[in-house]
Amino acid sequence: MPDQSIPQARTPDAPPAEPVSGASGISRRALLGTAGATGLVLGTAGGAVGYASAPAGATPLTSVGAGRAMFHGKHQPGIIEGLQARGHLVAFDLAAGAGRKEAAALLRRWSTTAERLMAGEAAPHGDTDVARDAGPSSLTVTFGFGYSFFGRTGLEKQRPGALDPLPDFSSDHLDRSRSDGDLWVQIGANDALVAFHALRAIQKDAGSAARVRWQMNGFNRSPGATAHPMTARNLMGQLDGTRNPQPTDTDFDQRIFVPASGEPAWMANGSYAVVRRIRMLLDDWEKLSLTAQEQVIGRRKANGAPLSGGDETTPMDLEKTDAHGDYVVPLTAHARITRPEKNGGAAMLRRPFSYHDGIDADGTPDAGLLFICWQADPLRGFVPVQRKLDRGDALSKYIRHEASGLFAVPGGAAKGEYVGQRLLEG
């Protein structure tokens, strides 16, 4: 889990949210109102992103409810948007006898449902009314394909080389039943009911074509919970995400997305998602003194500043020593080991959720991070950094990787298309 791994939950600058009233026609939920004309709409990144006026006689939605991400576009939603307050990750395996034809029909159904729900509309059939009173709440739904999907659909020749299984790491204690999968869906929203509504709709749409392999639930700080937008904290209490790549970086697309001319062609403008369930050994971590915790991470807990001095955004001075000649940022500090310049320039966009799945019989919390990172090629992004962490990260003593998956996430669907159409009908 790097300074670009654990977590790194800095909220990327979110693209402008589309006001609900921008949808074609007025949706069922839009009739409840949109953001008031005199109020700023706050996006998931916490900044002002637009205005919308309420239809006459309608009660305005709050800024959280009015936020909207777009389904159609160059890239799938749920990658460059800011962190969301609630998330669900779910993997499916195709049913016995289901192949390419059934997969295409399923992705078509899923895409139709995702487009409607992200616009704040009801599911196309069998809507449960769970989200009836809410706006889109920045809902995103993202779809990906696992290694095994291509064998099950006869598309082995279209399987990307970058999707080869991840190597074993020393910190792995993987539960294979909660790892991998033919299909992967990421759901995020700023309202828990909106997120659950989408999860339920996606599950119902699977019908007899696919069954759930595993499912995980996560959360982040809610928009507006802090006095001003700031880097998120993880369950260890650390500011997390300080060095996350930003969409404004000149090399952002090159590092995160497959180029339009890339191979295979169906992955143009897509990305690869590494998903890891990383349990934090919080009882052990919380026994450390503040100073010891900061030495493990390499940053101040209060404000995320590097131990070498400055504030959160000050470049880390890896050569600075103290009066005894020791490095101020220890050689085993997580933030030192994960720096891109120490890993051949390897970079990835971390977009995680924290999780808490209860308390074990011995009182130990089952809590940690649903680590999700995006990159153009995991062999140049996640893998080299994780290998470096394996060889000496002080944080490794306090975490355990319990589940893992790697998924090819194709580019966004154009209007009238469904996600994965170029693969399944190409």
UniProtKB/TrEMBL annotation:
Matching InterPro entries: Dimeric_a/b-barrel (IPR011008), Dyp_perox_C (IPR048328), Dyp_perox_N (IPR048327), Dyp_peroxidase (IPR006314), EfeB/EfeN (IPR006313), TAT_signal (IPR006311)
GO molecular function: ferrochelatase activity; heme binding; metal ion binding; peroxidase activity
PROSITE patterns registered for this protein in UniProt: DYP_PEROXIDASE, TAT
E.C. no: 1.11.1.-
Note on how the cofactor is bound: Binds 1 heme b (iron(II)-protoporphyrin IX) group non-covalently per subunit.
Chain intervals for the UniProt region annotation (Disordered): 1-23
Keywords annotated in UniProt: Heme, Iron, Lyase, Metal-binding, Oxidoreductase, Peroxidase, Signal
Reactions mediated catalytically: heme b + 2 H(+) = protoporphyrin IX + Fe(2+)
Subcellular location: Cell envelope
Any one of the GO CC terms: cytosol
Keyword tRNA processing: no
SUPFAM superfamilies (UniProt xref): Dimeric alpha+beta barrel
Keyword Chaperone included in the entry's annotation: no
Main subcellular localisation: other
Cofactor(s) for this UniProt protein: heme b
Domain Dyp-type peroxidase C-terminal: 231-413
Pfam families according to UniProt: Dyp_perox_C (PF20628), Dyp_perox_N (PF04261)
Residue ranges annotated for the Dyp-type peroxidase N-terminal domain, each copy included: 76-220
GO BP terms in the entry: iron import into cell
Function: Involved in the recovery of exogenous heme iron. Extracts iron from heme while preserving the protoporphyrin ring intact.
PANTHER family linked: DEFERROCHELATASE (PTHR30521:SF4), DEFERROCHELATASE/PEROXIDASE (PTHR30521)
NCBIfam families assigned to the protein according to its UniProt record, in alphabetical order: Dyp_perox_fam (TIGR01413), tat_substr_1 (TIGR01412)
Family: Belongs to the DyP-type peroxidase family.
Protein name: Deferrochelatase
